[in-house]
From TrEMBL:
GO terms for molecular function: monooxygenase activity; oxidoreductase activity, acting on paired donors, with incorporation or reduction of molecular oxygen. Keywords: Flavoprotein, FMN, Monooxygenase, Oxidoreductase. It comes from Nocardia fluminea. Signal peptide: none annotated. Pfam families: Bac_luciferase. PANTHER family: ALKANESULFONATE MONOOXYGENASE-RELATED, C2H2 FINGER DOMAIN TRANSCRIPTION FACTOR (EUROFUNG)-RELATED. Residues 28-393 form the Luciferase-like domain. It comes from the Bacteria. The lineage of its organism: Bacteria, Bacillati, Actinomycetota, Actinomycetes, Mycobacteriales. FMN binds at T97, Y151, S222. Belongs to the NtaA/SnaA/DszA monooxygenase family. InterPro entries: Diverse_substr_monoxygenases (IPR051260), Luciferase-like_dom (IPR011251), Luciferase-like_sf (IPR036661), NTA_MOA (IPR016215). This is FMN-dependent oxidoreductase (Nitrilotriacetate monooxygenase family). The keyword RNA-binding does not apply.
């Protein structure tokens, strides 16, 4: 018996926290004006996307003590933006990135449950963590956590939030006008949670929301992060865009989910991706190269390498060789607020030098070769085929798509690629579910309260 074709899950993000966003483009709009968020969300809903994804920045990044102007600065509050988007959309999920390190479970539970009510069951929480003092200086506790403890706090935060969500049953509000009875039980909303991080009890103010629990998103690459996501998340962001690596990650997360007592289908794998379209493949490749050269200027290339070297490289020629000095891992961070994802600076520098020498690349060309995410490039038909094949080869369950151009970049994908995905039977033509959980094909939840550690 043949395996049924997988449906492609699509999320949309609005760029604004990295050098990929072409803020200088003549057609570019604001990254903070609501019209940009509204346009992107309406476009995604027109394309039958599953959700709109909003990243979060808690501090302005710095280079040598100055604002890091390679990033688009400024990020409005997540809940205000998503609540506003809820009022101009009907089906689109609303996924917000909110930090588990700097927020209390009661606040998080109340805010996401409220968003779920306001949107009719479309809320999702992307759970992220922090441990650095630079970000924490904006907060009362200073935010300084040992890196190994960030997932300890995150897991307990999530358990506490779920305990609050589950303190109300779906049928706790009777509201019988004839009898005058409002609540089915007098202790509705009562909660008590005891743990290493939190010792809280009281009465939760928000009745059970349409989804029961908002959808949980997470990103984790380390073994600890993968275990946390596999045990707790409904969807996880994958950093892998090449099929072989992506398929390995896909299998690993699904197997960890099974080890945690879940079904493989209980968690969805979603890499982020951009795209470049052309009437021919050659035209699309030419457009991609032009965009890439605008994104990775000489200054940008040097700053990206400074994250690895942890030292000032401004005196080096971007069109010259890769720097011959060694990194300084023990020096104070030269760039603050931007995560360094490599485990070994010296090994990374060695690899960059080897690539540069083997391919005869300049410093800037080496950065392009090694740092570029690799958008999906081609004709609309080719891009639709690549997306469909990637998902049905178990590289992922879908993609979170964005564009270098805010806010109109997604329009071309919706107008030219979405109809082809629908023709292939890979994407819905109409929304069929009433909640985000429904549309993602996630299992339903019990309506009654469940144990806090479930």
């Amino acid at each position: 018996m043949s395996t049924p074709r997988k449906q492609v899950i699509l999320g949309a993000y609005l760029g604004g926290v990295n050098h990929h966003t072409a803020w200088w483009h003549p057609e570019a709009g604001s990254q903070i004006d609501f019209s940009s968020f509204e346009h992107t969300a309406r476009t995604a809903e027109r394309g039958k996307f599953d959700f709109f994804f909003l990243a979060e920045g808690l501090i302005l990044r710095e280079r040598a003590g100055q604002i890091f102007d390679q990033d688009i600065i400024g990020r409005p509050d997540t809940f205000g933006v998503l609540a506003a988007i809820a009022s101009v959309t009907e089906h689109l999920g609303l996924a917000g990135t909110v930090n588990a390190t700097f927020n209390e479970p009661y606040e998080l539970a109340r805010q996401f449950a409220t968003l779920d009510h306001l949107s009719g069951g479309r809320a999702a929480w992307n759970v992220v963590t922090s441990f650095d003092a630079f970000t924490g200086q904006n907060f009362r506790r200073g935010g300084f956590l040992d890196p190994s403890d960030r997932y300890v706090r995150a897991e307990e935060t999530l358990r506490a939030v779920r305990a609050l969500w589950d303190s109300w049953n779906a049928d706790d509000i009777v509201a019988d006008k004839d009898s005058g009875r409002f609540l089915a039980r007098p202790d509705a909303g009562s909660f008590e949670f005891r743990g290493r991080q939190f010792d809280i009890s009281g009465r939760f103010t928000v009745p059970r929301s349409p989804q029961g629990r908002p959808v949980i998103l997470q990103a984790g690459v380390s073994p600890q992060g993968r275990d946390f996501a596999a045990a707790n998340a409904d969807a996880i962001f994958s950093p892998y865009g090449k099929l072989r690596e992506a398929a390995d990650f896909y299998r690993d997360i699904k197997s960890r989910a099974v080890a945690a007592g879940r079904s493989p289908d209980d968690i969805k794998i979603l890499p982020s991706a951009s795209f470049v379209l052309g009437d021919t493949d050659a035209e699309a490749i030419e457009k991609y190269r032009a965009i890439r050269d605008e994104q990775v200027t000489g200054q940008t290339a040097l700053i990206l390498l400074e994250q690895i070297w942890n030292r000032d490289l401004s005196g080096y020629d971007p069109e010259g060789p890769v720097p011959d000095v060694e990194p300084e891992p023990d020096a104070p961070p030269f760039i603050q607020g931007r995560a360094f994802l490599h485990q070994d600076r010296f090994a990374t520098v060695k690899r960059l030098r080897e690539v540069s020498e083997a391919k005869k690349l300049t410093l800037r060309e080496t950065v392009i070769d090694q740092f570029e995410r690799g958008p999906i490039v081609g004709t609309p038909a080719r891009v639709a085929e690549k997306i469909d094949d990637f998902v049905n080869s178990d590289g992922s369950d879908g993609f979170i798509l964005g564009s270098h151009l805010v806010p109109t970049g997604l329009d071309e994908f919706v107008d030219r690629v979405v109809p082809l995905l629908q023709d292939r039977g890979a994407l819905r033509t109409e929304y069929t579910g009433t909640t985000l959980r429904d549309n993602l094909g996630l299992p339903g939840l019990r309506s009654a309260a469940v144990p806090v550690d479930a």
